[in-house]
Amino acid sequence: MNIEKRFGLRIRELRMMQEISQEELAWRCQLSKNYVSDVERGTRNVSLKAIEKFAKGLDVRIEDLFHFER
């Protein structure tokens, strides 16, 4: 599995743990819902700025976004 897919699955996992919609996460991160959807599906190459926005929107440390299942 590629890094984009693994990152997207981790974003989805954290979002689902908080029981929020993609729309809510997009609002919190100041990103579009389509962008969040693309990231979760692993079809986007995410920038460092977007990673920071996801961490803030999910209220987690940046490194928490990279705790993948092997």
Q: Topology of this protein?
A:
Elements: H1 3-17, H2 22-29, H3 33-41, H4 48-58
GO cellular component, one term: cytosol
Keywords: DNA-binding, Transcription, Transcription regulation
Organism: Intestinibaculum porci
Produce a short descriptive summary.
This protein has 70 residues and is mainly α. It has helices at 3-17, 22-29, 33-41, 48-58. The protein has one domain (3-66): lambda repressor-like DNA-binding domains (434 Repressor (Amino-terminal Domain)), CATH 1.10.260.40.
Could you explain how this protein is built, in words?
This protein is mostly helical. The chain has one domain (3-66): lambda repressor-like DNA-binding domains (434 Repressor (Amino-terminal Domain)). It has four helices and no strands. Helix 1 packs across helix 3 and helix 2 packs across helix 4 (48-58). The chain is globular, with a radius of gyration of 11 Å.
